[in-house]
């Protein structure tokens, strides 16, 4: 069950609030990076006792000479004259650490080890040796190539039963781990007395394991810290280490899922540890980027309800995610929650909301929020922030997208009055695009001229916007002139510019100009994409210029792109139309080689071509393969085959395919298919069969058209079935199917010959001819 939301005063006094947390973090960082102090220190006197300082100074001076020249008698007198006690751990630590080299320190350590062995106070002797050993390790760490030497010294200590104290343990684990000797670092940790494995040391081990990608090992250590009965539990440093590592984009080792990270956040929360603003923002952003907005919402609500600190940046990340999925209801709920918790929205917050309102075409709501923010409305609801250029540009673009360009212009003038804001290239691009979209090309060009007068540099987006507007309204020559003008001024077009122009010239069948632009693009060194090549291939294929299309294909491959199924279909269709069967085969083989699977359009194109070429046996095989590939034939597929068999005079085969349509196609026969069959049946003197198909059309809800009736009238005339013709004429009138010149030619010649001109007159006037008294 969620805990109630904290009040404002309680929230500010919470140890997890930003100011208090910053203080704690500073203390913890100081503690985290200390290797020579007890992580749980007892109060110490601010100054070392005078006798200890004197002893340290005397011994260090004595040991300055070469190890072979040490005066051992004097050294023994200084350190071990009192046989009842060993030198203090503090003294031995400072003496050892102030020696010049690790070798000298190690020799001194050996000396001390030999002399404290006889001490009656074994606990004090052990503590003294541990402190001296820690100092030896510190000196060794400072010297080159210390990696293996550190671990060798640890093994030596183990062999001689010298306990490793906390400072030495931290130094060993951190130094070995960060030098890449992770197994050795773990061995040190595992071999320590359980009492030494406190939270600080466990944090160091987790940090090392995560750094080297040993995620599962790190999580095992962490799980023990989550145990409610554990002596040493997680703290805020643990949370920082774990979440910082797992939220990195370039994390070593096994990738931990967002869901698992959310679970860790909740486990930390049970111990009163919450991610700081930066980490919580990263997690929410990652969840939203992976379209897991609901989980991002749950995480933020959990932290809020559990008393964790939440700042504006976290809310902004969630607002961005909610906006992407158009969840404006929860955006409003979050804004209300921010107000309740005294989390003040900043200019980014308002910008996010305005941006998504504009994208969803809710511009009036965006304008209302803008007015409240800038203090122009009656109710500000605590929202107070200075609008910036991005916000103005977002609103202007939103207004232009919904056809309110004039309001956009007025807002630009208001923008000029705002301190620190001024129209820029983005502002003008939005307005120019808005006027172009409604066909006001002249106004768009005027804005471009105004932009230049104000010294605002146009961008390639400006160029593309104006070129697109000119092309949309058929002013292709003006578009070329404008491109040339911009290039003379030093602004070159990009792939979008050329794609727009090439596509427009292909659409008006000016392939020559399209090809010229394509070559100009290549020679200019402009970065290209596959789309511009596809556009050129399509235009050339439609124009039947397949040699040129093949040339563009070679350029596409040289540029590192490959053909997709759409491009293959365009080329296959082009080669079929130009009857280049060998090239069709090449395309099919290439599709198989590069792993592009043919789709329904590919098969339909092939079947249509084979049918027109009279290769019906191959067409049948292609149809079978199409079905075996799991593709459902369309009415076009079957129509092509039916038409081909009808032309061949094989009505029985055509009718078999017609009947198969119901079981093998999701699309039932349409008017075109019925017309092909009815026409073929009538031509083969099977009029009654054709009439039955017309009845079938009525039952299936397929509406006959003028071509259907014309085919029937021809067949009825050949068999002199006048009464059937009269019935069909009434049917045409009832269905408001207008006769064409072929209908009138057939009926005029036939009915005039048999003296039924009155019925013909009434039919032309749109009356039922059955009512005729003629």
UniProtKB/TrEMBL annotation:
PPR-type repeats, residues: 346-380, 388-423, 424-458, 459-493, 494-528, 529-563, 564-598, 599-633, 634-668, 670-704, 705-739
PROSITE patterns (UniProt xref)? PPR
State a single Pfam family of this protein.
PPR_1
Please name the InterPro entries in this protein's record.
PPR_rpt (IPR002885), TPR-like_helical_dom_sf (IPR011990)
The protein's superkingdom reads: Eukaryota
| Keywords for this protein | Repeat
Q: Which family does it belong to?
A: Belongs to the PPR family. P subfamily.
This protein is called Pentacotripeptide-repeat region of PRORP domain-containing protein
Q: Which organism is it from?
A: Malus baccata (Siberian crab apple)
């Amino acid at each position: 069950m969620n805990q109630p939301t904290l009040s404002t005063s309680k929230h500010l006094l919470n140890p997890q609030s930003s100011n208090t947390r910053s203080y704690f973090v500073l203390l913890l960082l100081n503690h985290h990076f200390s290797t020579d102090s007890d992580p749980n220190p007892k109060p110490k006197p601010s100054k070392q006792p005078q006798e200890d300082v004197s002893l340290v100074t005397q011994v260090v001076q004595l040991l300055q000479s070469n190890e072979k020249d040490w005066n051992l008698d004097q050294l023994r007198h200084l350190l071990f004259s009192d046989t009842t006690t060993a030198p203090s751990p503090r003294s031995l630590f400072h003496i050892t650490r102030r020696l010049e080299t690790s070798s000298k320190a190690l020799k001194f350590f050996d000396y001390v080890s030999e002399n404290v062995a006889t001490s009656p106070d074994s606990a004090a002797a052990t503590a003294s040796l541990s402190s001296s050993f820690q100092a030896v390790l510190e000196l060794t760490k400072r010297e080159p190539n210390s990696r293996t030497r550190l671990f060798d010294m640890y093994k030596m200590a183990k062999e001689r039963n010298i306990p490793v104290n906390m400072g030495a343990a931290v130094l060993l684990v951190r130094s070995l781990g960060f030098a890449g000797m992770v197994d050795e670092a773990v061995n040190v940790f595992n071999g320590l007395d359980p009492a030494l494995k406190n939270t600080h040391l466990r944090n160091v081990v987790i940090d090392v394991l995560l750094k080297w990608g040993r995620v599962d090992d790190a999580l095992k250590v962490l799980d023990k810290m989550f145990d409610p009965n554990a002596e040493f539990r997680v703290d805020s440093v643990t949370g920082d280490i774990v979440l910082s590592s797992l939220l990195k984009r370039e994390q070593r080792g096994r990738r931990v899922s967002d869901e698992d990270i959310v679970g860790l956040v909740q486990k930390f929360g049970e111990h009163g540890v919450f991610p700081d603003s930066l980490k919580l923002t990263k997690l929410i952003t990652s969840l939203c980027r992976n379209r897991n907005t609901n989980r991002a919402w749950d995480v933020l609500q959990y932290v809020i309800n559990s008393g964790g600190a939440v700042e504006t940046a976290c809310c902004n990340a969630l607002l961005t995610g909610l906006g992407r999925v158009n969840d404006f209801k929860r955006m409003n709920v979050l804004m209300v929650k921010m107000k309740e918790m005294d989390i003040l929205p900043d200019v980014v917050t308002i910008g996010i909301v305005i941006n998504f309102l504009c994208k969803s075409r809710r511009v009036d709501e965006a304008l209302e929020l803008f007015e409240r923010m800038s203090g122009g409305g009656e109710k500000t609801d605590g929202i107070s922030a200075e609008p910036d250029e991005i916000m103005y540009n977002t609103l202007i673009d939103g207004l232009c997208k919904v056809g309110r360009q004039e309001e956009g212009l007025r807002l630009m003038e208001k923008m000029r009055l705002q301190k620190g804001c001024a129209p820029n290239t983005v502002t003008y691009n939005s307005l120019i695009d808005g006027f172009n979209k409604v066909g006001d090309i002249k106004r768009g060009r005027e804005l471009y001229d105004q932009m230049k007068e104000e010294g605002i540099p146009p961008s390639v987006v400006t160029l593309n916007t104006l070129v697109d507007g000119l092309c949309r309204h058929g002013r292709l020559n003006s578009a070329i002139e404008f491109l040339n003008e911009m290039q003379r001024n030093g602004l070159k077009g990009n792939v979008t510019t050329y794609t727009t122009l090439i596509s427009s010239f292909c659409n008006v069948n000016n392939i020559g100009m399209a090809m010229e632009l394509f070559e100009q693009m290549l020679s200019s060194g402009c970065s290209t994409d596959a789309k511009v090549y596809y556009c050129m291939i399509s235009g050339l294929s439609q124009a039947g210029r397949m040699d040129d299309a093949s040339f563009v294909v070679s350029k596409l491959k040289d540029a590192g792109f490959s053909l997709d199924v759409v491009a293959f279909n365009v080329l296959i269709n082009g080669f079929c139309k130009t009857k280049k069967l060998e090239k069709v085969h090449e395309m099919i083989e290439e599709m198989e080689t590069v792993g592009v699977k043919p789709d329904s359009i590919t098969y339909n194109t092939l079947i249509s071509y084979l049918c027109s070429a009279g290769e019906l046996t191959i067409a049948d095989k292609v149809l079978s393969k199409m079905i075996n590939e799991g593709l459902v034939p369309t009415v076009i597929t079957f129509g092509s085959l039916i038409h081909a068999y009808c032309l061949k005079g094989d009505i029985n085969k055509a009718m078999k395919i017609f009947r198969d349509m119901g079981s093998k196609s999701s699309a039932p026969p349409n008017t075109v298919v019925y017309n092909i069959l009815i026409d073929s049946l009538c031509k083969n003197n099977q009029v009654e069969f054709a009439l039955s198909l017309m009845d079938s059309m009525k039952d299936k809800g397929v509406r006959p058209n003028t071509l259907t009736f014309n085919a029937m009238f021809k067949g009825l005339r050949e068999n002199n079935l006048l009464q059937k013709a009269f019935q069909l004429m009434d049917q045409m009138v009832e269905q408001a199917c207008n006769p064409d010149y072929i209908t009138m030619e057939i009926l005029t010649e036939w009915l005039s010959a048999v003296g039924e001109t009155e019925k013909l007159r009434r039919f032309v006037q749109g009356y039922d001819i059955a009512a005729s008294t003629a």
